[in-house]
Amino acid sequence: MRVVVVDDHPVYREGLSAVIGRMDAVEVVGEADDGEAAVPLVQRLQPDVVVMDLHMPRLNGIDATRQVLEVAPSTGVLVLTMLEGDESVFAAMRAGARGYVLKGADRGEIERALRAVASGEVVFSAGVAARVLAWFRTGGAARESLAPFPELTEREREVLTLVARGLTNTEIASRLVVSGKTVRNHVSNVFAKLHVTDRASAVARARDAGLGRTDLA
User: 4-aspartylphosphate: which positions carry it (predicted)?
Assistant: First the structure.
């Protein structure tokens, strides 16, 4: 099994690569310190599995996962992160990740997850799996706790939805009956909280989460 490790913390990345490299029949063929560096690396190496952090500069792990699968569709992505919120889990799955494991997992859990993802299975850490199963058992009834982007305020989520529908800041200000400056402030806050740097990335995140897809009323 050929693996690429993507994480912006060099000490953790190097330690993880060393652990993975000692597993039977597993080789770490490359490392990247953020999502932007990971995409061309994966395109060139075509590994079996990419171990992907989520919270990284320049290009976050969600967007990187999506782009990795565009250039290497047969590669499995295993998310390994400290983020355990429901929005992060479901965003990763919508982006195409096959696994979601929390940092702090021991060597055995990481190895099982790697082999599962490499063989085409889907795998979650125990705590994450329990919440995912609960969501499906209730048919998504726990909608409030799984609202997209819980880190956003209700107004910020509303602004993001309108951005995802293609409205300009001026059009959003008119629709919400607020000033253009207020909308710009909300948009800036949304970018900061979602760790994106431009409107296109924010729109991609929003649409992956199901925002902005309904027709304008």
Answer: 53
